[in-house]
Design brief:
The chain has 730 residues and is α/β, with parallel strands linked by helices. The chain has 4 domains: 209 residues, no CATH class; 147 residues, Hect, E3 ligase catalytic domain fold, CATH 3.90.1750.10; 102 residues, Hect, E3 ligase catalytic domain; 101 residues, 2-Layer Sandwich (Hect, E3 ligase catalytic fold). It is 45% helix and 6% strand. A hairpin with a 2-residue loop joins strand 5 and strand 6. Helix 3 runs parallel beside helix 6.
């Protein structure tokens, strides 16, 4: 059925377009239901593919086009005069519901949607004004909402008349560039709730194709106008486009749609229109909807690596790939792409090592296939950094960790613990590489100058190794860090090119140093005389090893006073200094270290927020979700010991729950796919109940003796998870 609950389906529109060469036919008696002529879709010729270089187009649309386009506009044809108001329309609907006579409403709908001109006549706020700016679409959004909200509760002949009118508008023969009235009509038609019904998909597809094929300048207008749509309506349009793509990929009733070979342009058209809404969403701060609302989880079930390889081979050419539009790919799907890409790189590097060994007539051994890191717990940081520095050529091999003097074999568990302990020590304030900001609960790079930044490079490589080996880390960097890490996402060939430099704002500073950011915000809003009251210049001061040093934010900054006129420039330069320039060498080393391991075109698919999730996982523990997905070996989920276990765990504090997760899996972070991705298993341990629980972190497995009561289980479990560092027995 339709949104809002229309009770019966229309006759199928899957055989769209009465005849391509036929001129628009008259509606005839507007008071009677229109009859739709439906030919065989197989006679309709295939349409050419649309241009797919949406990422380049979007970049040009948003960054290079001026606020007001200077190109001459095509003349707008004069519009019919329509005087019906929102209240008039709503009164007509109420009268029709009461009397059962829908003639007036039928006439309104059939007239309004008969052509693009009529749509503008009805919904344009002022038909005498051109509304040729990106700032105001001129659309009466309240009237559009009222008309669409009522539409699905009208009789079927009324709804059919709307669809027939849309067909007439789409069949119009276009000559020359589109007018702003045409763009307004497209913007209004996209919001039609009838397009949630699969029986209208052929009409919807042709609407999307026409919008996708518009010029770059026209897309620029649609992007800016779309950001003014209400959140509710915006979300509905996005959901409708995602549903259209999903059902074209996996139709519930394949016979409803034309053969895929006849409509290969459907999905590219819909995806490109979705890209316009994604661009509109990114222009607003905060965005209209979350970036995750653009994810299409249906794509998790297609051959993602084929999509990825097509994109690598053909780039942004006319060959369509969802990787050209990464906003539509979920973080779970992107993780799969990155994992498989990493695995292929690991296999390739290992194979090359084997070939090199054989070509030199040397005996190969298994250790050459791995990045073997051997460390002492008592010298964890120095040993680890030495190992990574010596084995830089092996960083893209599978990681294998050995703690000297311990019996543990690394099937994944030792690697997890190595990362956890190493990160904990490196980020300790005494180590001096990173500064912890208590107000924001995050770390930031120390701006202290030093002779050698190689340790920052090795920390970057460590974070890259975690992503490369699918390990989540307990790192508390602000979102700005990941934005810098993708600036640019591919390491430039020219080593003189600046890296790790991105546009930063006061909002970025708020996430690291909220108190300082608040002070700068107060400066911007100060109503008095800034120069006389603050007596500041374009110069900042920093303490380094007990010595106060000054830095000019611009040439001769110490001689330039901060005034009411230039305070915005001062704040921007100050933020840029703190987040970019003062830590450039530290972050550049960190950037090169990360990309020395994670260099991959797959990084082009990621948003900064998604990199953070891949590195850190989710800090939010949902033990109920873990309970639902847990597997059992030797136990049933109804056994008393298992019931005791979950009663105890669900009653734990967050700190104890994290300790349990760390004890059983080697990490207290939740992976991208949620608790279900842990593949957590509880096995029955046939040992005395005097023994503590045992964990196999390589397999996320907890071995639990059959404790007799809840009190005993809780006591033994807390002792076990609170003393869970090290492998083997002493």
């Amino acid at each position: 059925g339709l949104e809002g609950g229309a009770k019966s389906q229309f006759s199928t529109f899957s055989n769209f377009i009465t005849t391509i060469n036929q001129k628009k036919e008259g509606i005839g008696n507007r008071d009677s239901p229109p009859q739709l002529v439906i030919p065989n879709i197989k006679t309709v010729r295939d349409l050419p593919p649309i241009c797919l270089d949406v990422r380049q187009k979007q970049r040009m649309s948003l960054e290079t086009l001026p606020q007001e386009l200077k190109a001459p506009f095509p003349p707008e044809p004069s519009l019919p005069i329509r005087t019906k108001t929102v209240k008039d329309f709503q009164d007509d609907v109420e009268k029709s519901k009461a009397s059962g006579d829908w003639k007036a409403v039928h006439y309104f709908y059939s007239t309004t949607f008969d052509s693009f001109l009529e749509i503008n006549a009805a919904f344009k706020k002022d038909t005498s004004s051109p509304f040729n700016t990106i700032e105001d679409s001129g659309i009466d959004a309240q009237f559009v909402d009222a008309v669409y909200d009522a539409l699905l509760n009208t009789p079927q002949d009324v709804q059919k008349s709307v669809l027939k009118g849309i067909i007439n508008g789409l069949l119009q023969e276009w000559t020359g560039p589109r007018t702003k009235d045409d763009l307004r009509a497209y913007c209004i038609l996209l919001q039609n709730p009838q397009f949630s019904n699969t029986s209208t998909y052929v009409i919807y597809a042709h609407l999307l194709r026409q919008i996708a094929a518009l010029t770059e300048a026209d897309h620029h207008f649609l992007v800016h106008w779309s950001k003014k749509i209400s959140q509710r309506r915006f979300k509905q349009v996005v959901d409708r486009l995602l549903q259209f793509i999903s059902l074209r990929l996996f139709p519930a009733k394949p016979e409803e749609f034309p053969p895929m070979v006849k409509c290969s342009w459907w999905i590219p058209s819909a995806t490109k229109v979705l890209a316009l809404f994604n661009a509109a969403n990114s222009l607003i701060s905060p965005p209209i909807i979350s970036y995750t609302d653009f994810y299409n989880s249906t794509l998790d079930h297609i051959d993602l690596m084929e999509e990825y390889h097509n994109w690598q081979c053909y780039g942004n050419s006319h060959r369509f790939s969802f990787c050209q539009y990464p906003f539509i790919i979920s973080i779970a799907a992107k993780k799969v792409i990155i994992q498989r890409d990493s695995e292929q790189q690991m296999i390739s590097i290992a194979r090359q090592s084997l070939v090199d060994k054989v070509s030199r007539r040397q005996k190969p051994d298994m250790n050459m296939l791995f990045l073997n890191v051997k460390v002492r717990r008592t010298h964890l940081v120095s040993d680890s950094l030495d190992e990574l520095a010596r084995k830089r050529a092996d960083l893209k091999k599978k990681l294998k960790v050995t703690f000297l003097g311990e019996a543990g074999l690394d099937m994944g568990g030792l690697t997890k613990e190595w990362f956890l302990l190493l990160i904990r020590q490196i980020f300790h304030p005494d180590y001096g590489m990173f500064t912890y900001h208590k107000d924001s609960h995050c770390h930031w790079f120390s701006s202290f100058k030093c002779d050698n930044y190689s340790e920052f490079r090795l920390v970057g490589a460590l974070m890259g190794l975690a992503v490369y080996n699918s390990i989540t880390l307990d790192i508390r960097f602000p979102p700005c860090c990941y934005k810098k890490l993708l600036s640019p996402p591919i390491v430039p060939c020219d080593h003189n090119t600046l890296v790790g430099i991105c546009d930063v704002t006061l909002d970025d500073l708020f996430q690291i140093m909220p108190e300082l950011a608040h002070g700068l915000n107060e400066l911007l809003s100060y109503e008095g005389n800034v120069e006389e009251d603050f007596y500041s210049t374009f110069q900042v001061f920093q303490e380094e090893f007990g010595v106060i040093k000054s830095y000019n934010l611009k040439p001769n900054g110490d001689k330039i006073p901060v005034t009411n006129q230039n305070r915005k420039e001062y704040v921007q330069l100050y933020v840029d200094f703190l987040l970019n320039k003062s830590i450039y060498k530290q972050f550049a080393a960190f950037y090169y270290g990360f990309h020395s391991v994670c260099a991959s075109y797959a990084l082009l698919l990621l948003r900064p927020e998604e990199v953070e999730i891949l590195v850190c996982g989710s800090p939010e523990l949902d033990m109920s979700a873990l309970q639902r997905s847990t597997q059992y070996e030797g136990y049933q989920k109804t056994d008393p010991t298992i019931r005791y276990f979950w009663d105890v765990v669900l009653g734990f504090s967050l700190d104890l729950q994290k300790k349990l997760l760390h004890f059983a899996t080697g990490s207290d972070r939740v992976p991208v796919g949620g608790m279900a991705d842990l593949n957590f298993k509880i096995s029955k341990s046939e040992t005395s109940t005097n023994w503590l629980p045992v964990a196999h972190t390589c397999f996320n497995q907890l071995c639990l003796p059959p404790y007799k009561n809840k009190k005993e289980l809780k006591q033994k479990l807390i002792i076990g998870i609170s003393n869970a560092e090290g492998f083997g027995l002493e």
